[in-house]
Design brief:
Layout (H helix, E strand, L loop, with lengths): L19 E3 L8 H16 L7 E4 L1 H10 L6 H16 L12 E7 L9 E5 L5 H9 L2 H18 L5 H15 L9 H19 L7 H15 L3 H10 L7 E7 L10 E8 L6 E9 L3 H6 L5 E2 L3 H4 L1 H18 L3 E8 L2 E9 L4 H13 L5 H6 L3 H8 L2 E2 L7 E4 L1 E4 L2 E7 L2 H9 L4 E5 L7 H6 L2 E4 L7 H9 L2 E4 L5 E3 L4 E3 L5 E3 L3 E5 L4 E4 L4 E2 L2 H6 L12 H16 L3 E5 L3 H9 L5 E5 L9 H9 L3 H25 L4 E5 L12 H13 L5 H13 L11 H6 L3 H18 L5 E6 L5 H22 L6 E6 L2 H5 L1 H4 L5 E4 L1 H9 L3 H14 L16 H15 L4 E4 L7 H10 L3 E4 L4 H12 L9
Parallel strand pairs: 14-15, 15-16, 16-17, 24-25, 24-31, 25-26, 26-27, 27-28, 28-29, 29-30, 30-31
Antiparallel strand pairs: 1-2, 2-5, 3-4, 3-5, 6-7, 6-9, 7-8, 9-10, 11-23, 12-22, 13-17, 14-21, 18-19, 19-20, 21-22
Organism: Streptomyces hintoniae
Enzyme class: transferase
Family: Belongs to the PEP-utilizing enzyme family.
């Protein structure tokens, strides 16, 4: 509700707006208006199933209430009319003294938000009607217990009384009787408790508990409306990416009671096992109880199958209803029911949540049963679920306590000895040790250690920090931003909460799916899905399980349906081969800077330090055969598929030693009067190349224009490698990508030089080479002038990581740690724009550039190679915009393939949130 908006006595609403629907009037397709619960109650009513009569107040009424501060003017009269009809049908009035009608008031938004919003049961009970209920039920204890529950729920939910006060009073009553559970309190005990609860309400709320049943109902309705904007509800919506403007419906339903004796009870049923997807009778039942007793765990439930022995008639009716609902919804259904003295009532149904494995199994089972087709099956699973299945996990039965928790940056389960620098990680790994690289944060110099490690743990950073991005690309488990862990790299130790010290060499276990950190070794369960994608397990083989078979079939559906091709971000032959096994249709991004690290760093230093053309040419000449060898291996691994090679992109200072470390070395050498000429030249070069904001400085195409011969050396290596592969009867399909272009003139100059080099290689080798030349669109100006740039480019690849940085004005390495958490909490972001593409800002530029480029060059190939290429939601956007392919890390290829298929078959009617 706006703080500056005065409540209106008569909120303006469109003439003829209907705010209340009887359960007989709605259907399951009206979730936007009636919420999920109300729509499904109406659907079950229409199916002739035993649903307690009631009505639903629409989300439109909630929106008016939240916007204006008051309910719509027509709402009270509509509620009165529907309440009159309900009373006539039930043959009793709300809260009447002798035989009261009682109702529940429950929330029910479009998307399930379990426990986030408010519910009040037993409305209509008062000092007068509680005795009528006792007489009607023939059970004093039941009536007074129901009254106690109403005051407790109403006081906490509607009047804002601290719930602990009621719990304390209940505990005192149990202590006085020397019992441990409230079901052992007698009617007289509960009468006294009612009196105590009313005193708590009077003292804390400043008013008496309302005795007027209509006042109870109206206040409860308003409380449910208000609960849409509680902190917990808003936090849940942000987490689940549920829009904040939907509002909640309110369901007013006549009460039925499962706590009327041994012939009554309440339970939850699933039409299939939500954990495995197997068909059968799954659920729990509790005799002589209300639904809240099952949730609260007051007493142990029995398996639903036990109901057949307890009440076979109800059991048979329930199983028939379960079959009806599953066939009707064509999916796993989650059902809540109550049995009141042998009579079965259906209180709720919804498409049930399920594990990732169950989702894939159920989708294929329903296809086999003829209930859904392959297109719909694709809408029943998600890329996020597939990702869950691909990573190893810790054994859920292992008993071990987490000592810290960070951001779940890259899924998986990793166990190893703690090491605190990359050198040690590589050294220990080579000697056969499994290690966890622990750092405050990582940088490009840590790459070797990250490759060697089983997993990466940092005390700083977020999901798009260096550690997270690189780890996901390599399929490494990573937990970032575990701030409660004190990492001391100098002393090679880490202190966990409570003061326990983890020394280098101590065992750690990190869970990249939950962000939890454990001391010691936790058993890991491998993923058969990854074994399938890597070709170590074949669908249909004797050793393949049902899950692998289901994944195989769903992926086949997706590949047949999708339009988007899926490439890989891969920098070496090993990653390229893995990507092919995972279904990559080429390489969309080969980052050549990774080829300059390790043993070649000295050659790069010589290039940077070169004072003369001769020195520079010698350095480039030494690098050329190494680059050529890299590309030969890559083209061989991806034979017959396109390979997009990005020319050198990062600032040169990244290839030089750290300025502080180098300064110390020079100072020490000078103090000892030792020779330090090379270090001094390096230090001078570092100072010369130092930039305040290197990501917006001398990098990308600017490097190729400023350092003569750098890009032409790389182009020559690519062309010669392609010629060598053709001579070996291979089919190399190289594409040369110029990074960070902001104006067409930059591209034209580099292209002219590249074309000349390619022509020279063709003449020297006698081999015809068809090397496409294009550019990355990663600057706003490039996107805005894409029509001009397309005249010199044969393809665009959108570098959405840098494009997001430059559009938002964010430094990705800094902002997540400084203010992203606050932005997410305040709802400014629903999700990090580095994780899922910002459709309105960055996405608009992508769309504009795509359209402008193709207007000039209709055959312009369009792709994306940022982190967004493997993000499920972003893949759907790229499909809509009309890109030709997405490129992502090898381990995300199956996810992108699946989502590309889902995007091509997206059904607006499907919603399995």
């Amino acid at each position: 509700m706006s703080e500056n908006k005065e409540p209106q006595a008569d909120p303006a609403t469109p003439q003829g707006t209907k705010f209340v629907y009887d359960f007989t009037e709605g259907n399951k397709d009206l979730k936007d208006l009636l919420g999920g619960k109300g729509a499904n109650l109406a659907e079950m009513t229409n199916l002739g199933l035993p649903v307690p009569p009631g009505f639903t107040i629409t989300t439109d009424a909630c929106k008016v209430y939240l916007d204006s501060g008051d309910e719509p003017a027509a709402l009270r009269d509509e509620v009165s009319a529907h309440l009159d009809a309900l009373e006539a049908r039930m043959g009793k009035r709300l809260g009447q003294a002798d035989d009261p009608l009682l109702v529940s008031v429950r929330s029910g938004a479009k998307f399930s938000m379990p426990g986030m919003m408010d519910t009040v049961l037993n409305i209509g009970l008062s000092d007068a009607s509680v005795r009528g209920l006792a007489q009607q039920a023939g059970d004093d204890r039941f009536a007074w217990d129901s009254y106690r529950r109403l005051i407790q729920m109403f006081g906490k939910t509607v009047l804002g009384v601290d719930g602990e006060l009621f719990e304390d009073a209940l505990d005192k009553a149990k202590d006085a009787k020397k019992v441990t559970v409230d079901t052992e309190l007698a009617a007289d005990d509960l009468k006294k408790l009612v009196t105590a609860f009313k005193k708590i309400v009077k003292k804390e709320a400043g008013r008496d508990f309302p005795q007027d049943p209509r006042e109870q109902m109206d206040l409860a309705i308003h409380a449910v409306f208000d609960s849409w904007n509680t902190d917990r509800a808003k936090l849940y919506r942000r987490q689940e990416r549920i829009p904040h403007d939907l509002g909640t419906a309110v369901n007013v339903c006549s009460m039925v009671f499962g706590n009327l004796g041994p012939d009554s009870g309440t339970g939850v049923a699933f039409t299939r096992d939500p954990a495995s997807g197997h068909q059968g009778v799954y659920g729990d039942y509790l005799q002589n109880a209300q639904g809240e007793d099952v949730v609260a765990g007051i007493r142990n439930t029995v398996p639903l199958a036990e109901l057949e022995r307890i009440d076979k008639r109800s059991y048979d009716q329930l199983t028939q209803i379960m079959e009806t609902l599953e066939n009707h919804y064509k999916d796993l259904c989650d059902i809540e029911f109550t049995i009141e003295r042998g009579r079965l009532w259906m209180l709720q149904t919804r498409v049930g949540k399920r594990t990732a494995g169950a989702a894939f199994r159920i989708a294929t089972q329903l296809v086999d049963q003829g209930l859904i087709d392959e297109t719909e099956a694709l809408q029943r699973v998600t890329g996020a679920q597939l990702a869950q299945l691909m990573f190893p996990r810790f054994d859920e039965h292992a008993k071990i306590r987490a000592v810290g928790r960070g951001i779940a940056a890259s899924p998986g389960a990793a166990v190893g000895k703690a090491v605190f620098d990359s050198y040690t990680a590589v050294k220990w790994s080579r000697s056969g040790e499994k290690v966890i690289l622990v750092r405050r944060e990582t940088n490009p110099d840590d790459l070797d250690g990250m490759i060697a490690a089983e997993g990466i743990l940092t005390s700083r950073g977020g999901k798009t920090s260096h550690a997270a991005v690189v780890a996901r690309g390599m399929g490494k488990t990573c937990v970032c931003g575990a701030e409660e862990l004190e990492v001391d790299t100098k002393r090679r130790r880490m202190v966990v909460p409570g003061g326990q010290v983890v020394e280098e060499g101590d065992l750690l276990s990190i869970d990249g799916s939950s962000g939890k950190v454990y001391l010691g070794e936790t058993p890991v369960v491998p993923s058969p899905v990854v074994e399938y994608f890597e070709g170590r397990m074949h669908a249909g083989a004797d050793d393949a399980d049902e899950l692998v078979e289901a994944v195989h079939r769903i992926m086949a559906f997706a590949d047949r349906k999708r339009r988007l091709r899926v490439r890989a971000n891969a920098d070496n032959a090993e990653d390229a081969l893995r990507a092919r096994r995972f279904g990559a249709q080429g390489i969309g991004l080969c980052r050549t800077e990774h080829m300059f690290l390790g043993d070649r760093r000295e050659l790069v230093e010589r290039l940077i330090l070169a004072d003369t053309d001769t020195e520079r040419e010698e350095s480039l000449k030494a690098l050329l055969p190494l680059q050529r060898k890299d590309f030969v291996e890559l083209f061989e691994a991806m034979d017959g598929l396109p390979v997009t090679v990005r020319l050198l992109d990062p600032p040169l200072h990244e290839f030089l030693p750290d300025i502080t470390e180098l300064s110390v070395r020079v100072a020490l050498a000078e103090s000892r009067q030792e020779s330090h000429e090379n270090d001094l030249r390096l230090l001078q070069a570092v100072h010369r190349l130092h930039e305040q904001n290197p990501m917006l400085g001398l990098r990308g195409v600017r490097l190729g224009l400023v350092i003569p011969g750098l890009f032409t050396m790389q182009v020559r290596a690519i062309a010669e490698a392609a010629a060598e592969r053709r001579a070996a009867k291979g089919d190399p399909r190289a594409e040369i990508m110029i990074p960070l272009v902001g104006t067409v003139q930059e591209l034209e100059i580099v292209r002219e030089e590249a074309d000349q080099v390619i022509a020279e290689v063709q003449e020297a080798t006698g081999t015809e080479l068809k090397l496409a030349i294009g550019t990355m669109i990663e600057l706003p100006r490039a996107a805005l002038t894409a029509g001009q740039i397309a005249e010199a480019a044969e393809f665009f690849s959108f570098g959405t990581n840098d494009l997001t940085q430059t559009v938002w004005g964010f430094s990705r390495d800094d902002v997540e740690a400084s203010f992203f958490t606050a932005y997410l909490e305040k709802g400014i972001f629903g999700v990090s724009p580095f994780e899922t593409i910002d459709r309105d800002g960055v996405g608009s530029l992508v769309k504009l550039a795509a359209e402008a480029g193709r207007a000039v060059r209709p055959d312009l190939k369009l792709g994306v190679c940022g982190e967004h290429g493997g993000d499920p939601e972003s893949v759907h956007f790229f499909h809509e915009v009309g890109l030709d392919y997405v490129s992502c890390s090898p381990f995300r290829i199956p996810v992108a393939r699946l989502e590309a298929g889902r995007a091509a078959t997206q059904s607006r009617g499907s919603d399995h949130r």
